[in-house]
Records
---
Amino acid sequence: MSAALADDLTRLEAAHAALLEHPLSSRKAWLVAVLLDNFCDAAFAAWRGDPRRVGGAEDVLRFRADAQAENPAVATIAALCAGRADGPRLETRAVKVPIPDYASLPISDYMVSLYNGNTVQRLQVVLRDGTTQLAPDVLAEALAYWQQRAG
Amino acid sequence: MGERIKLTAADGFVVNAYKAAPAGKPKGGVVLLQEVWGLNHWIRSEVDRYAAEGYLCIAPAMMDRLEFGFESENYGSDHFVKVGELMKNFDPAKALLDIEAAVKDVASAGKVGVTGYCFGGRFSWVSAHAGLGLSAASGYYGGGIPNYIDLAPVMPLEMHYGEKDTGIPLDQIEQLRQRYPNVPIYVYPGEHGFCNSDKKSYDEASTKLANGRTLAFFAQQLA
């Protein structure tokens, strides 16, 4: 890996670690999302001379499309970062927690949920069709994808 | 050291409470609202602390309507499901009756302020909206801000939150600040429950700063 790409990955991993410390911070989630999306471009720039590493992609858009086709989380983040009006968005929403699942909650979620109708706050990616995915999960999946490709 | 007493709410319900009096003439009254573990060791120690600071202080047992006499020192996740089941029947309107009964009980000391943590922090804000004979409120990390942001306070109020609180998004605290620019809203480096010295989340520096602010606020507002 080039030094520049290694720096990008280090910056991305640090931003992700900060998000894990503050899993409800939409600003930290946005930062990770943007760094992830940018990492795709940086990876192409670093690997473009090596057809094996870029999977035969001739340009950055092809490379991005291939990565998105290969990993749904990468696709979701690309759509999120594109900022289209009809695209996915990041939202903090209250999510119902079944009482039998309480034992697995962090204590802060647990305490707050008790007097908020058994709900916890969760940062979510709301997709075009209205379905939702937990934002930290999507970001972690995309990070793992790039870590594996860069490794 | 305080004592355990009983209060009668406006609807006739008899509720447990823990009350402590200062050595001399009280500076005022303080109603202290618990976390979700009832009048446990730490809450009683907080009541004693306010008494040592010169206030006639009382903590009503806010879980009594769900399970009379409930209190727990067990902060572990093995206890979460039991308390979750208990709270299914929680009635916020009736909780205000218990707070009101506590306010009346310490009103002989002069003006009364309310403070509380987590569940009690949320109800500090709700009480500041409801009135209840109170003169000031200082709440700590009350969760579910979207559920109380529309309840405009009718008395001087301040709030304290932890920036590492994974149950209360900073974005929502920011919204609260923007909505109520005249309400001092403090953010500390701690996590949820940073004031509770019986828990791992305890942050001594944040607690000292926050407690100092509450005491200064009450000294000003309850004089």
---
Amino acid sequence: MVEIRPSYGLATLHHLFETTAAQNRAAFMPYWAIGYPDYDTSLEIITALSAIGADGFEIGIPFSDPIADGMMVQTATQIALENGITVKKCLEAVQTLRSRGLTQPMMVMGYLNPLLAYGAEKLVMDAKAAGADGFIVPDLPPEEAHYFAQYCQRENMALVFFLAPTSSEKRMQLVSENATGFIYTVAQVGVTGARDTLSEELPEFIANVRQQTSTPLVLGFGISKPEHARTVNPMVNGFIVASALLREHHHNGKEAAIALAKAIRAAIE
Amino acid sequence: MATPYIQPHSADVPNERGYYGEFGGRFVPETIVPALDELTAEYEKALADPAFQAELAHLQKTYVGRPTPISYAKRLSEMLGGAKIYLKREDLAHTGAHKINNALGQALLAKRMGKQRVIAETGAGQHGVASATAAALLGLDCHVYMGSVDIARQQPNVFRMKLMGAEVIPVESGSKTLKDAINEAMRDWVTNVRNTFYLLGSALGPHPYPMMVRDFQSVIGTEAKEQILEIAGQLPDVCIACVGGGSNSIGIFHAFRDDENVELIGVEAGGHGTATDKHAARFANPDISRPGILHGTRSFVMQNEDGQIRETHSISAGLDYPSVGPEHAYLRSMERAFYTAATDEEALAAFRTLSETEGIIPALESSHAVAEALKRAPKMSKDSVILINLSGRGDKDLDTVIKILGDKLG
């Protein structure tokens, strides 16, 4: 692979959050499922999101039983599975996106079983070679992560853990000690999905987490429109939009999804 | 002081992180990790509380009808000409299956924790019915997730649940069966975790569920051990139970785990045969089933080479699940228990045989255990003893069996 980026993994994420902090804003990190609505289009959409100013990406690997996901991500990843998308194919997608000039951080996001089936060490090595920067695994809490984390640590790849509004102070410390790259803060008690309003307890939750850690916080679950982005922009280091973009694509097509992303990105400028 | 009804920590597994050797654990979204911590702590407290133990014991006796008897299957044993076969009659427990032991225990725990809303998943509907029953008895609001395929083939149980005031929520995702009902119940729990108790129906899922369900079901083995010593004058040479998620089997195995001369045999659903891909025998074929993570626990999982979960098949909805409780994977790895499979055809034959020889119509799930006894008994001596856990009654399966056997009888 041609090295087109000055750094990768933890260093790249560190650089991202330094840059956005200097610009006094949060990083916009959309999610897209590889293979939705089909393989080629998913890559085109990610490329288009890159062009409208996305700061980083969550690259979704499909799983047959995604227990942390609401209907929209379930639907998109189910279609991806029907399109024959595998872990290998997702890593190929990352490599192809890099070869097309995409420079933003890319986090591979998937449930644990397909990742283990691929092989933890092989996955970390191959993802690194393909140009990914780290992993987000929603069913892997820090207590269970040692096996996977050892390879991430060795290769300077990020392994992100989650904190939720239900997390105790003790768990905030545990996650803070173990998370690398950033902490994925869950904006809503629940599964992923577009929502009309943000949770009222969000400011207090983020304030509590901030007291326990200096690791960058990236917020996800339910951030769906420009006004949400404006609200969370001063609170966190980055935010993820997933279901709202998929839903927009589902109802109104590719251009509409990109237009929504563009409006969200403009809201934090 | 009387022995507690459920004896805490009566086994060396799991460890404090919920591991049975290399199996088990807690692979779940962060949102529910604190709830699992709370559940573990409250469960321990409940076990240490004589009032909780007494209430469970009282309800098991006066409501469920425990202890369930052991029956000597005399005509069946004589017909086979070998080992004497005894049946632990969980089919005689209220609601017609062992599921009530766990549902009642967990519902009491929910009440104790002040969680008015309980959710459950169900495949064949037996755990759903048991949960709806316990919820009606204790005045809890019960919501049961059930795949729409299962709803269509288990109408009487759907009606039973509704009759007892439970809401039955159809699940349309994935294969629309038990696996997907568990997915949906977990999503509900992730969303409503603050006021909701997840009443999980088998010895699977994240810690503490496999331990807690085992403990609540261990009453089966505790009773059976005492009864078989009294009736047969010896421990069984072989103890056989069917294994879906594995709660009835772990419940009867548990009491015998230190009795090395008791052979423990789990029978999985062999479907169309374990050489095909239409079965639910997780331990049978390493090409399509190997250790992995499903529903929060590490165990044997039927999956394709890319780690996607496979669809399973069994004539019995209760065994139709792509993973198996982690303690079974552990017992197998220790060679303390052995696992085999019975095909749909063998289970159906056993269903008929037990009905004809003993006047007991077994659940199709339990028929798998009976099928294994039919294979073994003739090869064993007349003074040897087989104990079968007859985990449920077969009335719920009559629709299924009528479709297959209807015109072949009479």
